[in-house]
Automatic annotation (TrEMBL):
GO terms for cellular component: mitochondrion. Pfam families: Ldh_1_C. Keywords: NAD, Oxidoreductase, Tricarboxylic acid cycle. The lineage of its organism: Eukaryota, Metazoa, Spiralia, Lophotrochozoa, Mollusca. It comes from Magallana gigas (Pacific oyster). Belongs to the LDH/MDH superfamily. MDH type 1 family. This is malate dehydrogenase. It catalyses: (S)-malate + NAD(+) = oxaloacetate + NADH + H(+). InterPro entries: Lactate/malate_DH_C, Lactate_DH/Glyco_Ohase_4_C, NAD(P)-bd_dom_sf.
């Protein structure tokens, strides 16, 4: 589905900002860019295709607010990496306002955030996924992007894009959005040792997901 939609977009609106929320996001974003390359619509100096991973941030913010009794609208936990299992990397150490966790709680919360999508898919047993939460996350991403395109300052969101931050060719990090889509990739925030290990652990899975997307297009 993503491939077919992108074939048309590459022809009729190659410069449009595209947010892809369809799973597997880790592979559908590389698929989209491969389509653009084939259609000569790919601009290596510009990023206009985004994997929407905002739901991971929404979940991290929600779980931290519940645990710590904070207002969810005032919390921001950056979540980097990809959008499945171990590739989802919540940086709880970089939450604002700062929150502290004993290591065991940090580990449990990290794993809950990583498995939250699967938890809902399993609970719905064949009837889809976290559909409404996904819509909320998509709207959060779209509104931030639209505000930035309209000239608003300081619109930052983590999204999964082509990246040189790690050995993986795609990686979500906080992005400063602006009139051209990505104004600046803000890179990987500071991490504690546990989080640096999560990034390292995510690499094989993430790189294999990216390879799968690219290979899907070379068949
Ligand atoms: N990135 C994220 O945060 C999240 C992503 N997702 C992903 O979003 C997607 C949709 O999830 P749900 O809405 O829960 O699934 P769903 O199963 O409720 O809806 C899928 C829809 O796609 C339609 N469809 C199937 N084949 C089609 C085709 N060839 N052309 C056009 N439409 C077709 C179906 O009729 C159905 O209405 C899935 O890929 C899911 O994994 C879901 C939750 C979060
Ligand atoms: O696997 C799925 O479709 C669920 C998913 O991405 C999520 O809820 O974050």
């Amino acid at each position: 589905i993503v491939r077919d939609l992108c074939e048309v977009c590459a022809e009729v609106c190659p410069d449009a900002i595209m947010g892809i929320i369809t799973n597997p996001v880790n592979s559908t974003v590389p698929i989209a860019e491969e389509v653009y390359k084939r259609k000569n619509a790919f601009n290596e100096n510009k990023i206009n295709i985004f994997g929407v991973t905002s739901l991971d941030i929404v979940r991290a913010n929600t779980f931290v607010s519940e645990l710590k009794g904070l207002d969810v609208d005032k919390i921001n936990v950056p979540v980097i990496g990809g959008h499945s299992g171990v590739t989802i990397i919540p940086l709880l150490s970089q939450a604002t306002p700062a929150v502290s966790f004993p290591q065991e709680e940090r580990k449990k919360l990290t794993e809950r955030i990583q498995n939250a999508g699967t938890e809902v898919v399993e609970a719905k047993a064949g009837a889809g996924s976290a559909t409404l939460s996904m819509a909320f996350a998509a709207a959060r991403f779209a509104y931030k992007m639209l505000d930035a395109l309209n000239g608003a300052d300081n619109r930052v969101e983590c999204a999964y894009v082509r990246s040189t931050e790690t050995p993986a060719a795609y990686f979500a990090t906080p992005l400063l959005l602006g009139k051209n889509g990505v104004e600046k990739n803000l890179g990987i925030p500071k991490t504690i040792e546990y989080e640096a290990q999560l990034i390292e652990n995510a690499m094989p899975e993430l790189q294999s997901n990216i390879k799968k997307g690219i290979e899907f297009m070379s068949k």
